[in-house]
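Sequence and structure are no longer studied apart. As an example, we show below a sequence and the tokens encoding its fold:
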Amino acid sequence: MKVKVKEATGVLGELLANINEKELAKIRKRMMLAAKIEEAMKRCGYNQTQFAHLMKKSPTVISEWLSGDRNFTTDTLVDIEDALGIRILDVSLMTVINAGTEISQKVSANSQKVSTVSLSGTWNTRTNNGGSKYNVNCA
């Protein structure tokens, strides 16, 4: 999907100039989530009315989802994932993080498989279930 960037001017430009980085990041993520949902809807051949019927929601709610004006519950996000066949939530057991870059490795407690990821540099590893944090040197 190609995104056209246009600089905001006037009142909108003034408002955006006064938003702090944290709020701007939240807005950006809400909009990316909305775009991901809308793209998946189109891929599945649903318009807003059809998707509203499928989700048992009003078309107004779907419009709010797609405009980034509504917060989602986890249950709603899971329902959207199931309806559209997409992944929104990352609930892997382990995530490797470095300078804003995330690489996720899913680990199943019942799996006998072992997988290896080779990375260059120093990475911090944390578990999503609140477990210990470790520093890992990867070469």
About this structure: The radius of gyration is 19 Å.
